[in-house]
What does this fold into?
Amino acid sequence: MRHAERLAFLGLGSNVGERLDHLQAAVDRLHAARGLRVEAVSSVYETAPVGGPQQGPYLNVAVRVATRRSPRELLRACRRVERAGGRVRDERWGPRTIDVDVLLYDDEVVDRRDLQVPHPRLTERAFALIPLIEVAPGQRLPGGKTLTSALVALAPVTGVTMIGSQVTAPLGARR
It folds into this structure.
């Protein structure tokens, strides 16, 4: 049985090495994965790290993908992209070459040990909400709250600086 195509939204971050290169490579790998199509990539935002050990600033983007994968299959694809990008999971909230989180999957709620959607800290993180709003204008969280109202609740927002649009959707992807 073939699954219907669904929209999902991913948050990507990097704070080790050539951060822009890591983000672009991850977007390209996502687009190349079977059952995934990158439709849009947000602007790039530089942000201070949240939690964890002393580390350098992150570059973050949000990505809108069309997928025929289930939420858990999408998570597995994200983990493969992280491994291909040199991600090592040895320290919680530690520095990383690439981090790929499932932020939203249509209007579904998933509550499993290995996957929670919407991302459990999404509404606490301006660095995730701001780029997400770019690729998901008008999107609501399950339950009806808008992403914009979640961001307004965090005001005043500081420490999230747009630096440009250096990471792009692969050729053939919709913008």
Remarks:
- The helical segments are 19-32, 71-84, 126-135, 147-152.
